[in-house]
Amino acid sequence: MKIRLALSLATASLWYRRKVLALVCLTLTLSVTLLLGVQYLRTEVKQSFTSTISDTDLIIGARSGQLNLLLYTVFHMGDATNNIRWSTFQALEKDARIDWLIPISLGDSYKGFRVVATDKAFKEHFRYGQGQPLELAGGQWSEGIFDVVLGAGVARTLSHQLNDEVILSHGGGRTSFSNHKDTPFKVTGILEATGTPVDQAVYISLQGMEAIHVGWESGVAIPGRTLTPERAQGRDLTPSAITAVFAGLDRKILTFRVQRDINQYAEEPLSAILPGVALSELWRLMGQFERALLGITGFVVVTSLIGLIAVLLTLQAQRSHEIAVLRATGASPGLIASLYVIECLALAVVACLSALVLSSLAISILGPWLLTNYGIQIQLRSLNLEEWALLASVPLAALLVAFVPALSAWQTSRSQGFGSPDKL
Amino acid sequence: MNSQLLSSADGSIDKPEAIETSNLTFCWDRLQPTLRFPDFSLPRGEHLFLYGPSGTGKSTLLSLLAGMLSPASGVVKLLGTEFHRSDAGKRDRFRADHIGVIFQQFNLVPYLTAEANVTLPCKLSSRRKSATGESPTLAAQRLLSALAIPESHWQRKVTQLSIGQQQRIAAARALIGAPEIILADEPTSALDSDNRDRFINLLLALAGERNTSVVFVSHDRSLARHFHHQIELGQVSA
């Protein structure tokens, strides 16, 4: 086989038909970009999802299923089945195997965003991603009872500045009719975007949570019994119950033993879960969707390839004279067929390379914008093996479908007579 | 029968004829009548004129001689080889090495330059390449000059050239590397009479220099005067 001749002929032919082929190549490029993008996002989103919380060994709450506990503590979705007593928290604090504890108390909201009441341990021990701590974009962590720190998403959506005054609402929901209007909070800090549910919550102290609920024991404010900010200062605001606890252990090897001990805690029914395990279980549930998305994108690429073949087959009719000349000059049917294979493969490779450039451009331009506006963290990184394999599958598929026009060209040129094929 | 046996000019026996055929028939499919072709033999370096009205199988005969079609029966001997017995691949290689072709029109690969079209046979056949003696490009340029293609046109896209120029470039492609046989299928039918005579004279002169035999097909009988031999086709029997 005259490979060099075939290559030079195919190159010249592609260039000659560049206007038509550029459009097909563009279609293929866009679909490969989509395929690559979806696969890239899958990996990134999974990565970001499974590292929503890190370094926390156990999440402890009232007895419930592990997904439920994970959803309401980490993702602020759904509600706690029950509270845990403060005495239980104190008992956990005494456990020598536990290094640190972050108590959290949920239940209120601010314009649809969850209010999370916690203490200093949250700032010190809460980690996300690859063990990144939370950083403030401005201001400082709450010092007083009525100080609030906003997640990046909350501050952006509601355009809050430092020192703004906010009124929290009782219970969840975007529009609540029972507001804690006697006890306004002051924004003292705004967090950096993390790309996790942390961005979508506001953080107050446990004392603040306790203070705004004095006089609300029946579920609504009883006039005269609620606290004013001044009256709150002198009181003991230790909570009687909290919603959940994040725990870090001294020795990770003891995780399962501590988990079992907590699950069998005699004083009240508790559940302890391993966040990593629960997160991957949750991902398995949602994974169906992203696999379906990848499947759909795969079909888009297949459709583009079929379009490519359709165009090549249409061009074949125009090429009969040229093929007749090549055949008469002594080119074998194999050489003619190889032209189609080379052209198809070259188009696919060009499309893949353009898709690589296009998607890396898109990610580097859109990445920072996505993080600040949607809290989605996507960084440019080199492709992993799976992504390379996916990308390589496009030219391979092109090679496979190229046999359609190639075989048809081979067959026609085998029975090619002198001159044009339609001529007797 | 209008068939005639052409005798060799020098009468030598050991030097094989360029083309010899006997009892050649071809059938496109069962519904169409079988085409029967007259027997002839053409010595090296001599030129044959084939004429006849359309539908008499002129192009079919050229396809058989070029090995692009296989005869239903009969013998085609080219340069002493029993061409019809070779397999398709061998015939393709033989054609690349020993045969130049010129069509009626659409003779050129549209995306190659004039020069690249002329050197195409040298890329398909190392025999034709080495026969140029020099580089194929130099040989192509020499032929293009001889065929009065201006130098400014050599690197041009062939689709920008006139029909007359395109046919002369096709002639240069057929002549390069001095193949023993040139098959030309009505190459002058799109040319005016001045161009036609000039084309045939140039083609035959350059073929003569290379001891190349030309088989020239046309329905225009007036061209016969340029050739050593002539055969009329037109006997189609069922």
UniProtKB/TrEMBL annotation, chain A:
InterPro entries on file: ABC-4/HrtB_transporter (IPR051125), ABC3_permease_C (IPR003838), MacB_PCD (IPR025857)
Topology versus the membrane: Multi-pass membrane protein
Subcellular location, principal: membrane
Keyword Ribonucleoprotein: no
Domain of life, source organism: Bacteria
Keywords per UniProt: Cell membrane, Membrane, Transmembrane, Transmembrane helix
ABC3 transporter permease C-terminal domain location: 296-414
Statement: the UniProt record of this protein carries the keyword Transmembrane: yes
Transmembrane segments: 292-315, 335-368, 388-410
Localization: Cell membrane
Positions of the MacB-like periplasmic core domain: 22-212
Listed name of the protein: ABC transporter permease
Species this chain originates from: Marinobacter salexigens
Automatic annotation (TrEMBL), chain B:
InterPro entries in the record: AAA+_ATPase, ABC_transporter-like_ATP-bd, ABC_transpr_LolD-like, MacB-like_ATP-bd
Top-rank taxon, per record: Bacteria
GO molecular function: ATP binding
Boundaries of every ABC transporter domain copy: 19-238
Record's keyword terms, sorted: ATP-binding, Nucleotide-binding, Transport
UniProt-listed PROSITE patterns: ABC_TRANSPORTER_2 (PS50893)
Keyword Cell membrane: no
Keyword rRNA-binding: no
Pfam families associated with the record: ABC_tran
PANTHER family for this protein: ATP-BINDING COMPONENT OF ABC TRANSPORTER-RELATED (PTHR24220:SF611), IMPORT ATP-BINDING PROTEIN (PTHR24220)
Name recorded for this polypeptide: ABC transporter ATP-binding protein
Organism: Marinobacter salexigens
Taxonomic placement: Bacteria, Pseudomonadati, Pseudomonadota, Gammaproteobacteria, Pseudomonadales
